[in-house]
Amino acid sequence: MFSLKGETIAVTGALGLIGKAIVEALSKNGAKVIMLDVDSEKGARVLSDFLARKYDVSYEHLDVTALEAVRENIKILDEKYGGITGWINNAYPRTKDWGVKLEDIKVQSWRENIDLQLNSYCISANEIALLMVKRGKGCIINVASIYGIVAPDFSVYEGLDMTTPAPYSAVKGGIIAYTKYLASYFGKSGIRVNAVAPGGVANNQSEAFTKKYNARVLLGRMAKPEEVAWPVSFLVSPAASYITGTILMVDGGLSAV
């Protein structure tokens, strides 16, 4: 029931920390995986590594933030690969000033980040869902965040040169709401739409931040990338065939208390 053999699954933001872990998890479960990203040079290197491990993986350049073109590009990909049965929205595009404090965010920057992150997820999901409807089968997974559900504890950032950007919560909250909208809209067509909401993922953060963050997590640590990837693989598999409109918390228990 966890096997993905016979499935063709596309992953946006496939070259990032979580993206690569998702590609590997899906591949290990037997899926044909299409890695979608914008860095073709890196894509070639990552593809070579996965092919050396005998995974059924390909790489395609796709800029999900090119909103006017993304619909046609997804149609081209779907036709090229004989029908995409699973779509993982995982890209994390953002402006160069990403990470500034709320009081320093410029209106134009806010608008750009909503387009780059929230709107790209929504439009991509719309298009692939409409193509899936024609086949009466398909699954979409959106990578959201706990900060689309609960507020950040800003005490973990005190004394540190970092914060959770305000648009991040707005974007991830929007993704969660739209996940449920799509699940309702396409449910009778046999299309499942779910999201995962990861907490912090270990990625060489400072010791000071990590210590403060871990103190809030029931399991006492940040996630490994693969600990986000395997829940994604589960949700897109036949084992989750009766699950749709769900937001799966993958946060080590942070949001439970």
UniProtKB/TrEMBL annotation:
Coiled coil location: none
Keywords from the named record: Oxidoreductase
Claim: Oxidoreductase is one of the keywords in the record: yes
Cited InterPro entries: NAD(P)-bd_dom_sf, SDR_fam
Gene3D superfamilies registered for this protein in UniProt: NAD(P)-binding Rossmann-like Domain
GO molecular function, one term: oxidoreductase activity, acting on the CH-OH group of donors, NAD or NADP as acceptor
Family note: Belongs to the short-chain dehydrogenases/reductases (SDR) family.
Protein name: Short-chain dehydrogenase/reductase SDR
Organism of origin: Candidatus Omnitrophus magneticus
